[in-house]
């Protein structure tokens, strides 16, 4: 048994007994990797990433320790919103390839033991979708497939209609768009080119399940559900829609932040849909065998809402409602704020359901190195891998890619500049090895010759190699298995130094990170609170800011840390081999 004695300075650390866990399924501590298909690998030289390019590079994901890859939308789309406006939910957009190309990708993934997760966008379709065109024409079965409403009479202009409510879309402006042919407004929580489905219509549920089945039958391992909180809106019994109250956050009446979205987000019916889909996936597994197919839910929502999205003890929904607590983390990050971010999840979702996941970046967020600073990127990667649960890595974070600013007048969303979707940097050749063309769909980062996979593979303490070491450590028994008799705890030793303790009968590890810009004498902190401060440990992982070498021995009472250093120490004499990561 690992002896962990907590004192006054670590009163906020959670004891092993409160974090008892029994891992039973692959997704619970999996490493997921988000690929933005346009930007990962171009196989045909047209400057745009595609499915064959992904297939070509899948072995890389196994190299860096990934369990599964999640692909941003690849479905047929006019690309008004970068593929999140789907015109055909059961076909591949020609930009990325064909269904046969996708099948080849799945075959390759399965041959190397990599799972594939698709992006599923159930809240809305494209205006070019066949379903929407049928609904515009009021065809049988599709009349109320989308949210339609007559609107209000305009007292100042007889015969003219006003939107049914004051709701403002995510991209600004009214959430209601007039359709001249149908002579009604339709709802769109996002762009006007993205009409919302009417989930109060049972036929919508049936069609969505058919879409899930289509891809499951082809062999996918699950779905990341886009925009979960937006699937339902409040409707009064008389069929009218209530205005939302002012937020007070801005005077711009066209901004999404002008209103408090109490009627258009996180409605209670959404939970039932997630439970329905979870049941569908569980039944599919019973009928067809194989591993669990999973739901990853994108939801920028309060933690209490996310708890319900996961389950209520009787029914279960999303396997992993995404934890976006780190989305707000910036260069102000220190050990105390890191502890608050971790605790806000562990004190709620973990205590309730023994489930955790950690999303550090995605296609909507600025890149980690640009957000928290280049000095802290490795530190964050090491700490995230040391925490229990699943990790979700956005492509390029494992090599420390940075934001790339550029004019983007036709991006299809509300940004005139896009920061985080530049092509992946494979090597120092033409277009960073992403494409044989110099005319790539987005510009290559200027630092690609120094910052790429090829270069970093050859540098012992590169961001890539630190990331790979962290992932290998994450999947060892000491990190995957911890029960009442084993150890897990975490906490800030002071404002700058954060510690995670992991261990079981195979070994005890201390993961340490110095967020500060000065040298920290950590030994006295251990001495005041830890009974075993004189125990000997061995460095098994070090970052570029560390002066130490792998295999070097140290007593806890003598630990110093350089600015921005992260390291992993393994206790010597715990019935395990001295393994370096």
What's the layout of helices and strands?
Elements lengths: L30 E5 L15 H6 L1 H6 L4 E4 L3 E2 L11 E5 L6 H13 L3 E6 L9 H7 L11 E2 L2 E2 L7 E2 L13 E4 L4 E4 L14 H17 L3 E4 L43 H20 L5 E4 L5 H8 L9 E2 L13 H19 L3 E3 L8 H5 L4 H10 L3 E5 L58 H5 L5 H12 L2 H4 L6 E6 L4 E8 L2 E8 L5 E2 L1 H7 L6 E7 L10 E3 L4 E2 L4 E6 L10
What does this structure look like?
The protein is α/β, with parallel strands linked by helices. It has a domain at 25-122 and 202-246 and 261-470: Alpha-Beta Barrel (TIM Barrel), CATH 3.20.20.80. 24% of the residues lie in helices and 17% in strands. It has 14 helices and 23 strands. The strands form 6 sheets. Strands 13-12-11-5-2-1-15-14 form an 8-stranded parallel sheet, with helices on one face. A hairpin with a 4-residue loop joins strand 16 (487-492) and strand 17. Helix 5 packs parallel to helix 6, helix 7 packs parallel to helix 8 and helix 10 (377-386) runs parallel beside helix 12 (463-474).
Mind telling me the C-alpha Rg?
25 Å
- Low-confidence residue ranges: 1-21, 574-581
Question: Order of strands across the biggest sheet?
Answer: 13-12-11-5-2-1-15-14
Q: What share of the residues lie within helices? A: 10-25%
Helix/strand/pairing category: alpha/beta
Number of strands: 23
Gap from first CA to last CA: 23 Å
Q: How many strands, which pairing sense, and closed or not: the largest β-sheet? A: 8 strands, parallel
Q: How many helical stretches?
A: 14
Architecture of the domain at 25-122 and 202-246 and 261-470, according to CATH? Alpha-Beta Barrel
User: Which descriptor suits the 3D outline?
Assistant: globular
Strand content: 15-25%
Average pLDDT reading: 90
Output the CATH class name of the domain at 25-122 and 202-246 and 261-470.
Alpha Beta
The CATH topology name of the domain at 25-122 and 202-246 and 261-470 reads TIM Barrel
Could you state the CATH homologous superfamily of the domain at 25-122 and 202-246 and 261-470?
Glycosidases
């Amino acid at each position: 048994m690992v002896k962990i004695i907590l004192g006054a300075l670590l009163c906020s650390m959670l004891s092993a007994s409160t974090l008892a866990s029994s891992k039973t399924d692959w997704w619970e501590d999996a490493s997921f990797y988000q690929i933005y298909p346009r930007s990962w690998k171009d196989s045909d030289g047209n400057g745009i990433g595609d499915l064959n390019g992904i297939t070509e590079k899948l072995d890389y994901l196994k190299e860096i320790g990934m369990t599964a890859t999640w692909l941003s939308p690849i479905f047929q789309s006019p690309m008004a919103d970068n593929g999140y406006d789907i015109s055909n939910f059961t076909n591949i957009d020609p930009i990325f390839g064909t269904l046969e190309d996708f099948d080849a990708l799945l075959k390759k993934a399965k041959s190397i033991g990599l799972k594939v997760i698709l992006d599923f966008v159930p809240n809305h379709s494209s205006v070019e979708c066949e379903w929407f065109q049928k609904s515009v024409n009021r065809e049988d079965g599709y009349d109320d497939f989308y949210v339609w409403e007559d609107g209000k009479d305009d007292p100042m202009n007889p015969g003219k209609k006003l939107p049914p409510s004051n709701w403002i879309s995510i991209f600004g402006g009214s959430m209601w768009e007039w359709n001249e042919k149908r002579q009604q407004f339709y709802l769109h929580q996002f762009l006007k080119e993205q009409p919302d489905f009417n989930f109060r219509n049972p036929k919508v549920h049936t069609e969505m399940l058919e879409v899930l089945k289509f891809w499951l039958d082809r062999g996918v391992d699950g779905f990341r559900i886009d925009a979960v909180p937006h699937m339902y809106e409040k409707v009064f019994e008389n069929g009218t829609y209530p205005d939302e109250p002012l937020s007070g956050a801005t005077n711009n009446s066209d901004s999404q932040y002008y209103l408090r979205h109490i009627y258009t987000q996180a409605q209670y019916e959404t939970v039932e849909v997630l439970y329905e889909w979870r049941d569908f996936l569980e039944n599919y597994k019973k009928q067809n065998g194989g591993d669990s197919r999973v739901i990853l839910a994108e939801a920028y929502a309060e933690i209490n809402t996310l708890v319900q999205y996961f389950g209520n003890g009787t029914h279960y929904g999303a396997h992993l409602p995404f934890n976006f607590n780190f989305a707000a983390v910036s260069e102000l990050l220190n050990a105390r704020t890191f502890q608050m971010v971790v605790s806000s999840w562990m004190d709620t979702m973990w205590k309730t359901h023994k489930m955790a996941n950690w999303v550090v970046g995605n296609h909507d967020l600025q890149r980690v190195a640009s957000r928290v600073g280049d000095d802290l990127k490795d530190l964050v990667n090491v700490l995230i891998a040391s925490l229990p649960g699943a990790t979700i890595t956005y492509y390029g974070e494992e090599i420390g890619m940075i934001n790339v600013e550029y004019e983007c007048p036709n991006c299809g969303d509300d940004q005139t500049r896009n920061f985080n979707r530049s092509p992946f940097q494979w090597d120092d050749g033409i277009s960073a090895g992403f494409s044989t063309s110099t005319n790539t769909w987005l510009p290559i980062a200027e630092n690609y010759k120094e910052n790429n996979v090829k270069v970093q593979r050859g540098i012992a303490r590169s961001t890539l190699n630190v990331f790979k070491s962290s992932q290998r450590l994450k999947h060892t028994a000491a990190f995957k298995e911890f029960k009442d008799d084993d150890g897990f705890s975490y906490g800030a030793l002071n404002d700058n130094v954060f510690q995670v303790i992991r261990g079981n009968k195979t070994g005890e590890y201390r993961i340490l990170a110095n967020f500060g810009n000065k040298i920290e004498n950590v030994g006295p902190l251990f001495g005041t609170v830890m009974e075993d401060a004189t125990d000997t440990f061995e460095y098994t992982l070090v970052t570029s800011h560390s002066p130490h070498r792998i295999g070097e021995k140290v007593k806890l009472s003598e630990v110093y840390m350089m600015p921005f250093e992260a390291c992993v120490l393994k206790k010597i004499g715990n019935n395990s081999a001295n393994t370096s990561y």
